[in-house]
Each structure stands twice: as C-alpha cells, then as structure tokens.
Amino acid sequence: MLKQSLNTLRYVGRVEGISFLILLGIAMPLKYTFDLPQAVRFVGMAHGFFFVLYLLSIAWVTYLHRWSIWRVLGAFLAAFIPFGPFILERRISK
Prior knowledge:
Elements: H1 2-34, H2 37-65, H3 69-78, H4 84-93
C-alpha cells in the first residue's frame, strides 16, 4: 500500500505536469496568437482535473507516509512550477 501510494503520486504528477506544459506551451499560444480560446478551455479543464487528482494524491501519501509539512508544501508548490512535478518525482524516487 505504501509503495502503491508513491507510484500513484508519481504517475499523477507526470500527467499533471504534462498537462500544465501543454497548457502553457501549446494552448495559450494558440489562444493569444491565433485567437483560439477553445484550446485553453479544453486543456485547462483537463489540467484542472489532473491538478485536483494530484492534490488528492499528495493528501493520500501524506496520510500514509506521515510527510512533514515542508515536504507537503514542496509537493504542492511543485505543481505551480513548470517541470516541478518531474523534479518532485525524481526526489521521491531517491
């Protein structure tokens, strides 16, 4: 159960990180360069869903592993930094 929770956080972090990069790198330029707000609407909604899953995964891992407040805060802040979830995944793997 403990290893499964970390694997879930790593997987959800990857998906959330990829959706964030797609939102910033593809959808937003499409919106502001080619006036296509539908891209941001669709990708933004998907990213929001994955962000909530990421937060729930952090909560689950925190409960099972008794993470410190600093580790939880670091995992939370990683979601707001491009490539942050990938850095967190690497730190968790160690």
